[in-house]
Recover the amino acids of this structure.
């Protein structure tokens, strides 16, 4: 039986609550003999700061480096608002992304039929939606130099951020998008602003060249990022995989995510480069939501984003696509049966807590396996 090491970093707020539910799923799948998931748990974020004075320790980083995948809950909270900037809880997350060189952020936007009415768009626009935004995560305007605010001779200030991309950076993220599309509906939309940005011109050229060279069997189209934003709310089902830079990806993935309803439903994956010898990628899986201090400790959090993040790990790190499909189906069936946490309940609908939702998903998995 295949065996996988998972480093579980629950973090703060509702992180530990939703992490408990994902452990129910890993234990269940292990007991069913699908694979052996060995989970090691450690501190990150505010919890790590309280224990060690750092948002993530070197020892935890070593475990993350050695793991087959990292499952991350959420970090942050008002109690750490005044810790030194370099030790704030989010610094733990940023260090994990940076040191593991996780350059590709995958954010699926899936609209479960049972929740289509929770979207701000009409049911027919979003029902059955399944798109994937692939965002470049370690380059672009968030990291380019110079990045500064300078005082000019006339006393005015000038803020500068620098958008910068190299061929290599564009090619490796485009490769992730094309490879993913092959596992899905075989279509990639590359999104940039080649009409006004030099990086956009280069982006379009590099993606087109790579497509012609290695992925001619995948459909490729180019949409300007602003048009892509419009199309996402007009007719999102035209898309399969959208690949874009760090800045546009940040915005387009939030737009796409919100087509589907609640933050408590949204998983994500961050992937590194494939190892030359083993083909394995460093990877971290995490819900899109934060630590939700307003509901933390009350057993109210929706664990589906966390469980669904593990589903992505099954698919993209462990090569267990069938098990991943089963997790997705179990979630869809549970929702179709009317089980709701408060964040996804319609007015007047009965709600369950975090543990009950986790139990319902596990029970449904039991019926499917
Ligand atoms: P948040 O995502 O924590 O919460 C936003 C709203 O959504 C809240 O009303 C919350 O109750 C609700 N919500 C979020 N997840 C939910 C779930 N699983 N089930 C039910 N309801 C859910 O964002 P915020 O309030 O802006 O930030 C709170 C803290 O989390 C801050 O310290 C912020 O820095 C941090 N944060 C961390 C991450 C991360 O760890 N990746 C991401 C975003 C925010």
């Amino acid at each position: 039986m295949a065996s996988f090491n998972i480093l579980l970093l629950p973090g703060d707020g509702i992180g530990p609550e939703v992490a408990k539910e994902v452990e129910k799923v890993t234990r269940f799948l292990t007991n069913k003999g699908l694979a052996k998931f060995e989970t090691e748990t450690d501190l990150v974020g505010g919890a790590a700061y309280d224990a060690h004075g750092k948002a993530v320790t070197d020892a935890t980083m070593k475990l993350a480096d050695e793991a087959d995948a990292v499952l991350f809950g959420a970090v942050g909270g008002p109690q750490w608002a005044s810790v030194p900037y370099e030790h704030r809880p989010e610094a733990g997350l940023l260090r994990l992304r940076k040191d593991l060189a996780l350059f590709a952020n995958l954010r699926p936007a899936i609209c479960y039929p049972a929740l289509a009415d929770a979207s701000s768009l009409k049911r027919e626009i979003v029902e059955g939606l399944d798109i994937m935004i692939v965002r470049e995560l370690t380059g672009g305007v968030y990291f380019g130099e110079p990045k500064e605010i300078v005082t000019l001779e006339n006393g005015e200030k000038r803020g500068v951020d620098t958008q910068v991309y190299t061929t290599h950076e564009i090619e490796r993220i485009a490769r992730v998008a094309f490879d993913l599309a092959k596992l899905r509906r075989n279509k990639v939309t590359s999104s940039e602003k080649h009409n006004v940005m030099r990086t956009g011109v280069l982006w379009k050229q590099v993606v087109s060249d790579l497509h012609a060279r290695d992925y001619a069997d995948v459909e490729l189209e180019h949409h300007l990022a602003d048009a892509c934003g419009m199309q996402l709310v007009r007719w999102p089902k035209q898309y399969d995989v959208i690949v874009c830079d760090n800045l546009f990806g940040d915005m387009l993935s939030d737009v796409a995510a919100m087509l589907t309803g609640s933050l408590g439903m949204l998983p994500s994956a961050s992937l590194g480069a494939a190892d030359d010898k083993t083909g394995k990628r460093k990877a971290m899986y995490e819900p899109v939501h934060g630590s939700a201090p307003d509901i933390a400790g009350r057993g109210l959090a929706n664990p589906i984003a966390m469980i669904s993040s593990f589903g992505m790990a099954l698919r993209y790190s462990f090569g267990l696509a069938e098990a991943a499909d089963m997790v997705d189906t179990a979630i869809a069936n549970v929702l179709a049966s009317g089980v709701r946490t408060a964040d996804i309940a319609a007015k007047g609908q009965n709600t369950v807590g975090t543990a009950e939702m986790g139990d319902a998903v596990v029970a449904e998995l039991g019926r499917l396996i």
